[in-house]
Input
Amino acid sequence: MTSYIVRRLFATLPVMAVVALFVFFLLRFAPGDPAAIIAGDDATAESIAAVRVKLGLDRPMVEQFVVWVGQLLQGDMGVSIFSNLAVTRLIAQRLEPTVALTLSTLFVAVALAVPIGVVAAWKARKLVDRLAMAFAVLGFAMPTFVLAYILIYFFAVQWQLLPVQGYAPIKQGFWPFVESLILPSVALGITYMALIARITRASMLEVLAQDYIRTANSKGLATDRVLLLHALKNAAVPIVTVIGIGIALLISGVVITETVFNIPGLGRLTVDAVLKRDYPVVQGLILVFAGAKVLVNLIIDISYAFLDPRIRY
Amino acid sequence: MAEASILEVRDLHTQFRTLDGIVRAVDGVSFHVARGETLGIVGESGCGKSVTAMSILRLIPPETGRIASGSIKFEGEELTRLSEEEMKRLRGHRISMIFQEPMTSLNPVLTVGTQIAENVVRHLHVPWSAARDRAREMLDLVRIADARRRLDEYPHQLSGGMRQRVMIAMALSCDPQVLIADEPTTALDVTIQAQILDLMIELKEKTGTAIVLITHDLGVVAETTERVVVMYAGRKVEEASVEALFAEPLHPYTRGLMRAIPRLDVEADIAGTRPRLQEIPGLVPILTKPIIGCAFAPRCGFATDRCRSEAPPLVEGSAGHTVACWEVERVRASA
Output
């Protein structure tokens, strides 16, 4: 297993290299010029050119790329064109809210979805199942920001139970931290809840038709043991896969949620950087996102071996 | 005879709803099993023998099927009237079951030890450590070598024969009074089949568990059972002791089944050929339509107009040998 993990980690290097290559050149081929933005609306061609020289953007693209990669290998992601702050520092500052929001959203989604999916499969084609799946479809169809505003209106404005927006870092105390995450996590989590619940139901239905479930029932085992141990453990691989895909989707979903709830996370940093064509920041962020996705994939693959003894690496 | 019997099925009707109508999978079957006895239930695929077994344990999926009428008495207790909770306490404890497919009947993600021990914990209310000891004992009993190590293995690490041994160990772990074995050896190699059957018979002698052996294989029946029920199209067509049945099968269907068994003891003729096996002409009837008369009549060489219009009752052909056939005398005379 250890050698598998080491091999997988090494295998991520070419992936990251390709990502770096693509993001670098795509950004530069995309329309928009940071020099023009810095120089301002009434800038002349000369002043824009001067900014370009100052930023090093006048050099050949290949040279710029080599310089950037050289810095990367030393752990340096460069400096923001606009704020002159190190990209690594900018990202580090914004990391906590995004990681906290992603994890709490995932928690909300999984905690709701798996029980809903299991019960729906158990009571397949009965009223409970139809209600659960209707709820899931509704959750999936509802845009995150609409749900977010509905939640804010009732829980924050009308009943004043939770803060309207903002983020409280964990060092300000655990409860304010949790309070600030509840609404955004629920708003964002409902979509993934729907996805995971449907897969859980489908996977459970398939497993419940298997011979070994008949065996478990012929032993007179309690229903919860049959469902939660005999069936759910077998149904887990597709469910975990979808949860993994969910994490990947979340990283983009976080952008809207962070904006609606005014959370200073990576999502908003990304949007700002893209709008300003702040190349070093965008490049750094995309590498971080890509690295996170690769890591999540690895964790998911490793988890298979724990869920299914037939899978060995 | 009813006093000695541990399991008594009377006039059982089990039906399934399908898009084509109601399938009468079991259509008025009665039989009984005596304490410690081995009863064989024989018939072709689709004759209702597995459904009969599932009905006894009340494992017919309620979404599609139900026991429409009839009585199933186990130790004098009417199973059709028990609550689901009471049935759960009985399944795997006093009546247990093993299935045809050892490859798929064990849970692939749980260890063998867990799957045996959970049955013991559930029904005998002992702690897990004691249940694990019991599981190891059971693996020894079904002669799985190195039982202690096997407990922590998963089904995919075992061969088909070993898995069926594990199934037997699991089924017998709470000393049931009745073991229902639904085609327990069909999916196994011939040499393994014999080992598993021998094991079942040996354990039966040791534990006194009655066995209901469901099979399509008359060879298996001849070797292992004491009494045989022959089923056709959801009905019982013949019942006899195994000696009587093989000495003189009375139902044309039973005779057809026997002619379909390959025999090595029949001499080859001068040309070196043996008599060809004979198949039973025609197909098993479609059970969505009510069957008028004898269900076997369309495939039967002895059939008369009466066979096609009036269902034959079970009659005693000789002592303890019942058969549902209007033409018993002609069948018997035809040899």
Summary: Chain A has a mean pLDDT of 89. The longest helix of chain A spans residues 223-260. The interface with chain B takes residues 124-125, 210-212, 214-222, 225, 229-230, 233-234, 307-310 of chain A (CB under 8 Å).
